[in-house]
Amino acid sequence: MRKKNKSSLILTVAAIAAIINGGVAAYWVIMQEKSMQENLPVGAAIIPQDALMALSVSTNERQWQQLREFGTSQSQAGFEQSLAKLRSRFLTANGYNYQQHIQPWLGQQVTIAFLSPPKKTSQGKLTKQITPATESENSETEAPEPEKQSVVMVLPIDHPLQAKQILEQPQSPVNKNQWTQREYQGVTIKETKVNEDESYSTAVIDGQFLVISTDSRGIDRVIDTHKGGASLANTPGYSEALQKIADNQSFAKLYVNIPAAAVAANIPGQEISPQGLAQIQQQQGLASNIILESQGIRFKNISWLKPNSQRKYQITNNAGTMPQLLPANTLMMVSGGNFKLFWQEYVQGAESNPMTPFKPKELRSAVKSFTGLDLEQDLVSWMGGEFSLSLIPAKPANQENSQSPNIGPGVVFMVKTSDRQTAEKNLAQLNEIMSDKYKFKAEKSQLANQPVVNLVSPELGVKISQGWLDGNIAFLTLGAPITEEILPRPKNNLTQNELFRSTVPSELKPNNGHFFLDIERMGVDTTANLLSFLLRLSPDITTQNNLRNQLSPMQAIGVTAAVSDERSSRFDIFVKLKKVNEGGTLPAPNAPPK
Fold it and tell me: Where is this region: Disordered (predicted)?
């Protein structure tokens, strides 16, 4: 009897423990799901999954005021004008005032989504969509026309009664356009046509969201998604990706549908090859969490592959040495953990990105014609370690002479090798080619007890220096004489530079490399010229002025990259910005007629 009671007691305690544990597990699962849902942008459940891009922005006035304190007086004036144009286009023109008609009921975020164009045939060529969209019946039956971008804005309704009272009040639109009304899948849609090229459609969905679209197709597709179509919220890996970059101080969240956006771009003359298209289809998306800080803007980014993709990332977060080998006054540095792997991924990415500035085929051809060497076999093959490419300012030849010419910075490339013997053989071959073919004069010297080879061309005014650091790190300098800045190892290195430390993100450890650019010391014009060359931007005046205007508010840019796992990679960006004394204010809108 005692044994039976004891057994019953044990079973009872076990049952209670199982119930408690099950409850804890269930609670944990529920809280995890709730946390993931909270990280999703507002309206993610009604935005079509094939949207090209979605941007969710805070409506917090304090954060907007903080944003308007960054930049210069010129950049701030342009920013204020852009906000004023948006306000006039969406609110004032239709008789609305933000503080009076929108703010009282609006939620904490607003989302703007750019939708994929419907499927269509152009010149007998099918424009592919990566993710099937749930199209409305109207968009399927209408004759194909030149498509414009459908934009959808989702405004969450936190106070339904206030929203109902305000939105149902008839306004006096400045443009005097008439609003028409129609029904689609049980949802009332109001529409107005501004002109031949511009119209608006609005609908309230379940009393939770006011949706505004730039055309009727956009609003129909949102309703289709609400009724059960594939949404942004259930995009594979999206909520998990947002969890990894979550931040309580988020100002905005950005999502880019990489395959759909790449195909939709469809730039004439830069079509994606079938192999490139196959590479793009391996990718799922890119998400960014944008945070305002006291000295600038931080972007916590993550990109990830589709669950069934054949491609996988190699986890090689081996960077960290290069900033210690560069002087503290370095103007620019880009580094990585493995140059051979970097080159392989660059070649692979160039096939799927027609806008890649330097094509691998062009680089191979240039190296072959200039040196006679095979880029992959003779050079990249022994570059299987950490690397960096940097700009370092040169000291004036005579510091006491103020009239000495102000020469530009020198370029230095460093790479770690595990096969120094092969590296030395190929570098010696390169030196011979430069001497024999281009008449460079080879001069051997010693610096900090290390052998250095200088290749000098008096006719071209070019100097190339080559040597070794720490036994297995080869370096190559070009341009200004900067060898003495890196050999011997600098006592004050880049990691001790306060601007570098405050700009380059340090959260990702270990990591796969950094990017650092000191725009203030480099100068806006020099930086713009450098970026124009690297990105092969158009040399026209408008493009150059736009680039300079974008760079002028910036002091420095820092990036840190890391491979999270075999299907996702992180890269955090911090843009250090100048600040004005006070945040700007929007010009008063033109009051609508009474």
Answer: 119-148
